[in-house]
Design goal:
By secondary structure, the protein is α/β, with parallel strands linked by helices. The protein contains 16 helices and 12 strands. This is Epimerase.
């Protein structure tokens, strides 16, 4: 019979990978949280029948709905976690793994870090303490580009010059798969010699160095920084919620970075038999694996920009042409791929034939030509509109065209 593992927060960045890895290793996974058919939410009293027979509970769920100044008994993250852990022990579950963070400190600048610290303290003082294992997780990267990792990858690729805070702060990256493996080890290890483990790279790196790794892994050039004060960064977070086409940044993440400090992880990694890989090597491989998908999406956007509804033959022809000419991938932004009409802002003047985007558009025109049917001739009015549009866009094109040269 397969060992039964209960996971909360299984729809999240870490939770989804943990659930998949557990199934690959032969576990029967029970997902409490947002999955259809489940009624439990953090803060609820779990049914004993839902917990019985489990080898462990891995608690990843975190509610962002609690007010920052809520009393501890009203904070679902604190009271709900303790309630779940105590119910697990009462049901005979031998291990309760709590997902914490390396930002867990009493004096943490962000609410998230202070809340995680308070939960750790309450768990240690609860009747569930004998079955509790705490995993303080570092800066997680890899896999799907979501959560904090996705945001940092987008920011690093956005521009060669990046305003940023906390550049000298030290961070401890760890791959998503390594985190999932560490959590599974905590969920199955019978008698660990300690209660708190740190899942993070043993040797910290500066945040500036981490962003440069993210940029180089995506095939971009050097990254230069403009140091900015914390107050300005928090104001910029507010502005990202108002401005289109740029990633929204939560002030909690900025405060977490501003207060970042490394934790000793070497002993934890050895006990859990984890040997974190070099992030630069792993990311170069992961981003390389997605280049084909990126190239196909870009080819489709180029053809749509030219007013062509792409056929499979045209897409294949254009992808091959772009690859042969060393133009694949162009690294178009997700906004341009979703809305190809915006390419009008970046299209270079006609005389700049060596421009990468100009060459790519020329290949797109050639790729569609064999199947193209002659249409009506452009009328005087449409031609006038086209010329007027080109004249109006010329200053913007001159300013922005360098992005994809």
């Amino acid at each position: 019979m397969a060992p039964r593992l209960i996971i909360t927060g299984s729809t999240g960045y870490i939770g989804a990978r943990l659930a998949a890895m557990a199934r690959e290793r032969g576990f029967e996974v029970v997902e409490l949280g947002r999955r259809p058919g489940t009624t439990w939410r953090i803060g609820d009293e779990p049914l004993a029948s839902d917990l019985e027979g489990a080898v462990a509970i891995v608690h990843l769920a975190h509610s962002w709905a609690t007010a920052p100044d809520a009393a501890e008994e009203e904070n679902f993250n604190i009271s709900g976690t303790v309630k779940l852990a105590e119910a697990a022990r009462a049901a005979g579950v031998p291990r309760f793994v709590f997902s914490s963070s390396t930002s867990s400190r009493q004096e943490a600048l962000n609410i998230y870090g202070r809340t995680k610290f308070r939960i750790e303290q309450h768990l240690a003082a609860s009747s569930a303490a004998p079955i509790v294992r705490i995993a303080r997780i570092g800066l997680v990267y890899g896999g799907p580009r979501t959560a904090m990792y996705g945001l940092m990858a987008k920011l690093a690729a956005l521009s060669p010059i990046l305003p940023m805070i906390g550049l000298s702060r030290e961070v401890q990256p760890i791959h998503l798969d390594e985190v999932a493996a560490g959590l599974l080890a905590l969920a199955t290890e019978e008698n660990p010699p300690r209660q708190t483990f740190v899942l993070a790279q043993e040797k910290p790196i500066s945040f500036a160095g981490w962003l440069r790794i993210l940029r180089h892994s995506q095939g971009k050039g050097n990254l230069h920084f403009i140091p900015i004060p914390l107050s300005a960064a928090l104001f910029a977070c507010h502005m990202t919620k108002l401005l289109p086409l740029i990633p929204t940044v939560d002030p909690e993440r900025v405060l977490g970075l501003a207060g970042a400090a490394p934790m000793e992880s070497g002993e934890s990694l050895r006990l859990l038999k984890l040997n974190p890989a070099d992030p630069l090597t792993v990311l170069a491989e992961e981003f390389g694996q997605t280049d084909d998908e990126q190239s196909r999406s870009e080819a489709q956007a180029l053809l749509r920009y030219l007013g062509i509804r792409p056929t499979p033959i045209q897409l294949h022809r254009l992808c091959e042409g772009l690859r042969r000419e060393g133009l694949s991938p162009l690294r178009l932004s997700p906004a341009l791929i979703r809305h190809p009409g915006l390419l009008a802002l970046f299209e270079p003047p006609a005389n700049r034939t060596k421009h990468r985007l100009a060459r790519a558009l020329y290949l797109a025109d050639l790729a569609s030509e064999p199947e193209r049917h002659p249409g009506r001739k452009t009328g005087f009015f449409n031609a006038t509109l086209t010329i007027a549009g080109d004249l109006l866009l010329f200053p913007l094109r001159t300013l922005l065209a360098g992005r994809y040269r």
